[in-house]
Amino acid sequence: MTVAVYRSTPSPLHAILLAGTVPLFLGALLSDIAYFKTYEIQWSNFASWLMAGGLVFCGLALVFALVNLIQADRKAGRPLLYFLLLLVTWILGLVNSFQHAKDAWAVMPTGLVLSAIVTLLICVTAWIGLTNLRSEV
């Protein structure tokens, strides 16, 4: 039994972009929670800007993930799962951004739910994307 290690760790810039999305989307979720509790409109504005930053970072990480997927020896398994999760996260983040573009009073509760889903997805995606891939051969 031989253990082969497939290095699928991202490049340093890719890792920075991927890791940077987590606090941005988490900050948007926390801002939505603060808005839900206080109804101070500025919290909704903060969430919108944090989501915009998260979408930029996530989109750039998505480009790196696509290039890595194209260059990968195996087009299935973990590299494909990572790319698809990142793509779904970006799409739901964009939908959430459109939701937050509405009037501040119309954002809740859909914006809060979408922010929670996007934050959970980006945490799982970052975990998968930043860990080494080990497989027994």
**Overall number of domains:** 1
Strand content: 5-15%
What would you call the shape? Answer: elongated
Structure annotation, total helices:
5
Low-confidence stretches: 2-6
* Distance separating the two termini: 7 Å
Order of helices and strands: EHHHHHE
Number of strands: 2
Can you list the strand order of the major beta sheet? 1-2
Derived from helix and strand composition plus strand pairing, the structural class reads mainly alpha
Largest sheet: 2 strands, antiparallel
How many whole angstroms does the radius of gyration measure?
Answer: 17 Å
Mean pLDDT: 89
Write the layout of secondary structure elements.
Blueprint lengths: L2 E4 L5 H27 L2 H31 L6 H23 L3 H4 L2 H20 L3 E4 L1
Antiparallel strand pairs: 1-2
Keywords: Membrane, Transmembrane, Transmembrane helix
Protein name: DUF2231 domain-containing protein
Organism: Oxalicibacterium flavum
